[in-house]
Write a structure and sequence with these properties.
Layout (H helix, E strand, L loop, with lengths): L1 H28 L4 H5 L8 E3 L17 E9 L5 E6 L5 E7 L4 E6 H4 L3 E8 H5 L14 E4 L3 E9 L6 H9 L2 E4 L9
Parallel strand pairs: 6-7
Antiparallel strand pairs: 1-2, 2-8, 3-6, 3-9, 4-5, 4-8
Length: 188
Amino acid sequence: MIRLLFTIIAGLLLGAIVHLVSVLALPRIASQDAYSRLAPITKLNTVTPLPLPDPSAAPLPFMDPAFAVAICRYDLSGGPIKLTVPVSQAYTSVSFYTRNELAYYAINDRSAGRKVIELDLMTEAQHAALPEDEDVTAADRLIIDSPSAAGLIVMKALAPEPGLMPQAQATLAASSCKVQTEPTPTKR
């Protein structure tokens, strides 16, 4: 009886370990992750609006039809990126993901407190190479350190009514995601 109980407990424990390992490893070994799905339809370091989702074909799973979505697939090997996203009438959010779909930063229009969400995205090494300026504060310039050189920026604008969807899409179409070729400005 004890031997049977021990075998059952060992089997359950082994099953739990195998399940946990497979669930944690699956995102790393999956071939159709978000970055791979979006690579053929997006340009590097450029804002690309995604089509509205329909039940038969959506570029990403679980897309909300009330949101207009735009993607910037970035690569920081050419230098830091300047991201500018105008704020829509209802709600705007910007989320940052690594190449392996790890979310590392998010901001929305309410926390930005401005009519335009502006920030600089760079690696930690690029941030460390910036010249120190005593006059520049975090309120003057938002700098986001990316844990990886490649990833995705997902921009969403809410259309509270179906008739406002063109306005939400136009807001995201006015966004820009460009590599900074000139030195980063020190004061706005």
